[in-house]
Amino acid sequence: MLFSNTGLAQEEISLTVKDTVTTKYKEINPLSPAKAAFYSAVLPGLGQAYNKKYWKIPLVYGGLGLGIYYYTWNNKKYHEFRDEYKGRLDGTIKKGNSSIYGALDNDGLIRGQKFHQRNRDLSALITAGIYILNIIDANVDAHLLQFNVNENLSVRPELYQNETDYQFKTGLKLTYNF
């Protein structure tokens, strides 16, 4: 025998391979976005709390509060200009006798009414827009919470050299590992 292992101790080697790719299955609730949107429609900010995005709640209430504040302020100023103008037309207020707008003429009062009426209406539209954005944000955020984000799916830009004219080209590479 040419090869013999007499006198040598044999050592047993065990090799374990650890699987690094683990797949966790997450149950998707298809009603979650609708529930978040409903909660935000009932009480603004409740959909953000349902999605556990608590930092968005002060933004929602800040936007709605500012919109309501400017609506009421412009509405008050509009009524002040309108009451002054109406009082001058029916003769109950004489020009110069008013404590608020006595220095303005009738054209100035009309311009003031139009200015504050336009800003009041714009404030109402902005407040309604913030309310609708609150609902849309809760719905989209609930959809994105169910979005699959892992290393097996990646998109990255790539710069490569064309073999025919040796010019550099740009491209987008989509990689999905099973």
UniProtKB/TrEMBL annotation:
Domain DUF5683: from-to ranges: 30-178
Superkingdom: Bacteria
Official protein name in the record: DUF5683 domain-containing protein
